[in-house]
Amino acid sequence: MQNFAHEMLREIYEQPEALRRTLALYLNGESLKPDVAALLASWPNPAGEILIAASGSSRHTGLYGEILLEDLCGLAVDVEYASEYSCRGGKDLRHPSVLVLSQSGETSDTLAALKEAHRQGHKTLAITNHPDSTMASEADVSMPLAAGVEKAIPATKSVTCQLAALYLLALYEGVRLGRMDTAAVTERIKELLAVPDKIEAELDGWREQTAVLAAKYKSAHTFLFLGRGIHYAIAREGALKLKEASYVHAEGYPAGELKHGPNALVSDSVPLVVLATVDRRLEASVIRYEKTLQLLRDMKAQGARVIALANADDREVPTLASDTIRVQPASEYLLPILEVIPLQIFSYFMALEHGVDVDHPRNLSKAVIEKTAKA
Questions:
Q1: Percent of the chain whose predicted confidence (pLDDT) is above 90
Q2: Whole-structure pTM value
Q3: How far apart are CA 16 and CA 318, in angstroms?
Q4: What is the mean pLDDT of residues 198-203?
Q5: What is the C-alpha separation between 237 and 343, in angstroms, rounded?
Q6: How far apart are CA 242 and CA 227, in angstroms?
Q7: DSSP structure string for 196-211
Q8: Confidence label for 23 from pLDDT (cuts 50, 70 and 90)
Q9: Are 227 and 235 in contact (CB under 8 A)?
Q10: Pairing status of strand 27-28 against strand 323-327
Q11: CA separation for the pair 61, 249 (Å, rounded)
């Protein structure tokens, strides 16, 4: 058994088992559970419209879910900041189904969004890490995670379990809508079940490499995290994790937006973190990858410092990036689960380089609860 100096690192290492527990809630071997399918069937909007409301890391997993549900299921999905959705007022004439995401199930902004959805008569689904939480109890349908207790304030295993739950939701919706046949669902489930083992095999290597990278890049003032398509969500999450864990400023952008302004910031003290993985079986992923390669060529010519995430067998990305973190190949829609973990570990070691109490960053709490002013 390994000894861990901090809960954050322990919880990063617990992710393979947390994922296995969460998958077991919704799968019978390589099949979807009929009782879960029946439960989820009561939630969807007949027009195929979904609104996702969440905050922080959960909003980033919602961005992942947006593309996942649109691409695999043909649904129309919007993602809102929970804090903004609850204050908009008015009437949403579309009557979308509303999905709320929260680790604690008690986040005040997201609870307010859930109440607003009920006020407007929308069907609601809650994905939380606490099945007895207020959010899980008040939503029409609850889809709990089995990440286990998460003590460190920076969310890690709850994030990967949310990503897995959203992938499972897409499979259930794909079947309900007739978008996936049995063979396709079985193949996707097999790929999903393989993810925990892939993570487990890489954790020690990622830990060793990112510790070195954190020492190398500790003087950076700002990081720009870049991703295209579904990977943009992970760029956003990687940037947030770095900010909250280490107090180093970072921003996440769609990779194609770098030259529309942010490139003015790129310098020796403002390196890039670029998600450059690929699913060669999917044409759209290959196109995304080729565009990312061109960006890396341009950044190399510009003299930028770049940390890239790439497939384990990629030969081109390492010639264009300053440093390359490798991940095992997976489908386009499962790669984000693999990508987010080395970014979590990098944030952990950056925190140590800056002397931060990584489990208890300043000004942050595990669940953001609204405080009532005393009279």
A1: 92
A2: 0.96
A3: 27
A4: 98
A5: 9
A6: 16
A7: HHHHHHHHHHHHHHHH
A8: very high
A9: yes
A10: unpaired
A11: 21
The pLDDT of 165-187, averaged and rounded, is: 97
In the three-class reduction of DSSP (H, G, I as helix; E, B as strand; rest coil), residue 266 is classed as coil
Same domain, 237 and 112: no
Q: Give the position of tokens 């770049």.
A: 306
Work out how many domains the chain is built from and give that number. 2
| Residue 363: per-residue pLDDT | 87
CA atoms of 42 and 374, how far apart (whole Å): 42
Q: Which residues contact residue 341 at a Cβ distance below 8 angstroms, ignoring those fewer than 6 apart? A: 12, 15, 156, 160, 199, 202, 203, 206
Same domain, yes or no: 91 and 239 = no
68 in the same domain as 181: yes
* Local structure of residue 247 (DSSP, 8 states): -
144 near 129, Cβ under 8 Å?
yes
Give me the pLDDT at residue 1, please: 62
pLDDT score recorded for residue 93: 75
Count CA within 13 A, CB hemisphere, residue 237.
34
Q: Are 345 and 362 in contact (CB under 8 A)?
A: no
Q: Distance (Å, rounded) from C-alpha 9 to C-alpha 324?
A: 21
Query: Looking at residue 292, which CATH number applies to its domain?
Result: 3.40.50.10490
Q: Helices 15-26 & 182-217, crossing angle to 10 degrees?
A: 160
In the chain, where do the E strands start and end? 27-28, 31-32, 49-54, 76-81, 97-102, 124-128, 141-142, 222-227, 249-254, 272-275, 306-311, 323-327
Residue 242 shares a structural domain with residue 173: no
Whether the predicted pLDDT of 366 surpasses 70: no
